[in-house]
Design brief:
379 residues, five-stranded antiparallel beta sheet, 14 strands
């Protein structure tokens, strides 16, 4: 049993007044974020000076007193301060080389969101009322919150498909799953989404390919609309809904798959894939992106931590496909088109993906037994 912070996301349907207030808040958050990013960028490239969160907070106070930015006083100040904290986190990740340089927020690109801390909303009898609003949000409670949980942070967002979501962050306890004796190695792929060391293959449904024709048709309609027209806005919404349908199906499958792997196995071993480099392959980029291997790994990481399982990530340079899992013979080359091969050392026939999953499992078990310094087999 451990205490964790979990976010529960729900759909909600705002009234006309609530929608106007939220859209106004989104716009102010975007303005503050972009102005702070511009100030920090100019200070660094012009004066070689770093600007921290406290200095951008002081700039926000000055902006509110500016005649042309008086509208910033019309919305809650908490989402504006939170946007400055998010910018600080983005710069910290950039300095630590964990992400790229922060980008400006666009009115048309991505989802719009605003974050409210405990002082900016009221939670009473299971009803959520945000600052500057008189009525609670009409939330579709698709699943209950943990008993006795009190929200600490609320994030309201609208995705490109026009759907409104509220994410409620609570502190709750998660019980560790019962200990089991099973272990599994996972080999990620394209034809099979994952191949397990047990020999089982999970077929990749290829959600993007299934809706590719519908997406292409919607994009062609969008391309013919005049820029700035109401019909173009409607066509853009149709494209966004197709993308949302694909993303929702993909996320649902990954959640079900990772939950099953974590519940059934005490040890899960995966490969450290360089997805950012792999998508540079123009032939496989679309298929790799649709497989969402990064999301698969992140889900396994936090679910293993929650339920008391062990997750081992083996070296990305491990030649898992070229090593015979029976005798350890290492092939010189193994083209990607070869899906089955026979070991010249012991004569055992291998399925490429199943063999790779078994080698990944063996490497993971070696790491747990000998430490993280185990290196892949070399000539």
């Amino acid at each position: 049993m451990q205490v964790v912070k979990r976010a529960f996301r729900y759909r909600f349907h705002p009234s006309a007044a609530q929608e106007m207030e939220l859209l106004r808040t989104f716009g102010c958050v975007r303005v503050v974020y972009n102005r702070a990013l511009e100030a920090r960028t100019q200070a660094w490239y012009g004066e070689h000076r770093r600007v921290n969160y406290a200095q951008t907070s002081a700039l926000l106070t000055e902006w509110k007193r500016t005649e042309g930015l008086g509208f910033l006083n019309e919305v809650s100040s908490v989402p504006l301060q939170q946007s400055l904290r998010h910018l600080q986190s983005a710069f910290t990740a950039f300095w630590e080389k964990r992400s790229r340089y922060p980008r400006f927020k666009s009115r048309k690109r991505g989802r719009a969101s605003a974050e409210y801390t405990r002082s900016a909303f009221r939670w009473r009898d299971g009803r959520l009322t945000l600052a500057k609003m008189t009525e609670p949000l009409d939330i579709v409670w698709s699943r209950p919150l943990p008993r006795g949980a009190e929200p600490s942070t609320v994030t309201v967002s609208r995705d490109p498909a026009g759907r409104w979501h509220v994410s409620i962050l609570v502190e709750t306890t998660v019980a560790h799953a019962p200990t089991v004796d099973r272990v599994v190695g996972v080999d990620a792929g394209i034809t099979s989404l994952v191949t397990l060391s047990t020999g089982e293959k999970i077929v990749n449904p290829r959600h993007e390919r299934r809706d590719r024709e519908r997406l292409a048709r919607a994009q062609r309609v969008l391309a013919r609309k005049q820029k700035g027209s109401a019909n173009r806005a409607k066509a853009r919404l149709r494209v966004a809904r197709v993308h949302a349908r694909i993303a929702d199906r993909r996320r649902d499958l990954l959640h079900k798959l990772t939950t099953r792997l974590v519940q059934e196995n005490q040890l899960v071993v995966i490969e450290d894939l360089a997805v950012r480099n792999m998508v540079k392959n123009r032939t496989l980029a679309r298929a790799i992106s649709d497989a969402a291997w990064s999301d698969l790994r992140s889900m396994l990481e936090y679910k293993c931590d929650w339920y008391g399982r062990d997750l081992v990530v083996v070296d990305r340079w491990l030649p898992s496909s070229k090593i015979c899992s029976h005798c350890g013979h290492l092939l010189d080359t193994l083209p990607l088109r070869v899906r089955e091969w026979t070991c010249p050392g012991c004569g055992v026939s291998h399925d490429r993906d199943v063999n790779a999953a078994r080698n990944v499992l063996a490497a993971g078990q070696a790491v747990t037994a000998c430490g993280a310094g185990v290196r892949p087999t070399r000539r």
